[in-house]
């Protein structure tokens, strides 16, 4: 497949790039700082650009089969500002499938299923700014015609891949408290071959 990976210099995004190249897919990454990509592989195309620039997104989505976005919030509105550009470029290019990394905060609350976790007392996080950004993206994808999946990890420590974890549609697995970057990347990448969670949020935890 031709896969576009956004957020490729981040912790999760970098590991998704490794998985995709290992499986011999053709990988395109759109990055502001190409020097941060320390991989030399004939199946890797590096485009220097910015996800907030419509022309860069159009260039990056040319000939792509599936988009994986591991963009994070980084204290900015990049996430919610870039998604309309990504959706528009995908629709113009006829790309249906997008898998994004969200946050457990935008899963449904078990204590109050009418609320998302970050809106309820279930989430222990005091700061909700990042969750609000992810919530905007969730709403945009929901209103689009795309075949989207949002992978929603809880606390994300670095660490080795365990390979065994629990996933749940639209909710965080019961009593789930963490999931490693490695396992999150592995599960996210595996969704390019799966339609089990199309148009769903997926909670993931040990």
User: Rg, please?
Assistant: 16 Å
The succession of helices and strands, N to C, reads EHEEHEHEHEEHE
Return the average pLDDT rounded to an integer. Answer: 96
Terminus-to-terminus distance: 30 Å
Q: From the helix content, strand content and strand pairing, which structural class follows?
A: alpha/beta
Q: How does the major sheet shape up?
A: 8 strands, mixed
| Outline type | globular
What's this model, at a glance?
The chain is of the alpha/beta class.
Task: Set down the secondary structure blueprint.
Elements: E1 2-6, H1 11-22, E2 26-31, E3 44-48, H2 54-61, E4 66-69, H3 78-93, E5 97-101, H4 129-143, E6 147-153, E7 166-169, H5 181-190, E8 200-205
Parallel strand pairs: 1-2, 1-4, 2-3, 4-5, 5-6, 6-8
Antiparallel strand pairs: 7-8
Explain what this protein looks like in three dimensions.
The chain is α/β, with parallel strands linked by helices and 206 residues long. Helix content is 30%, strand content 20%. The protein is built from five helices and eight strands. The chain has helices at 11-22, 54-61, 78-93, 129-143, 181-190; strands at 2-6, 26-31, 44-48, 66-69, 97-101, 147-153, 166-169, 200-205. Helix 2 crosses helix 3 (78-93). The model has no long low-confidence stretch (mean pLDDT 96).
């Amino acid at each position: 497949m031709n896969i576009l990976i956004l957020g490729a210099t981040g912790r999760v995004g970098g590991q998704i790039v490794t998985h995709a190249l290992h499986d011999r897919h053709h990988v395109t990454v759109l990055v502001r700082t190409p020097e941060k990509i320390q991989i030399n592989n004939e199946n890797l195309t590096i485009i220097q650009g910015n996800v907030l620039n419509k022309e860069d997104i159009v260039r990056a989505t040319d000939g792509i089969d599936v988009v994986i976005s591991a963009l994070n919030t980084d204290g900015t509105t990049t996430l919610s500002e870039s998604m309309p550009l990504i959706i528009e470029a995908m629709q113009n290019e006829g790309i249906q499938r997008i898998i994004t990394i969200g946050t457990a905060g935008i899963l449904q609350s078990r204590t109050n299923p009418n609320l998302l976790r970050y809106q309820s007392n279930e989430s222990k996080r005091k700061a909700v700014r990042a969750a609000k950004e992810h919530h905007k993206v969730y709403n945009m994808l929901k209103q689009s015609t795309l075949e989207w999946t949002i992978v929603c990890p809880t606390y994300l420590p670095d660490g080795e891949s365990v390979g065994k974890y629990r996933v749940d549609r639209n909710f965080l697995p019961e009593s789930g408290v963490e999931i490693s970057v490695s396992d999150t990347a592995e599960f996210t990448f595996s969704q390019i071959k799966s339609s089990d969670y199309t148009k769903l949020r997926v909670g993931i935890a040990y």
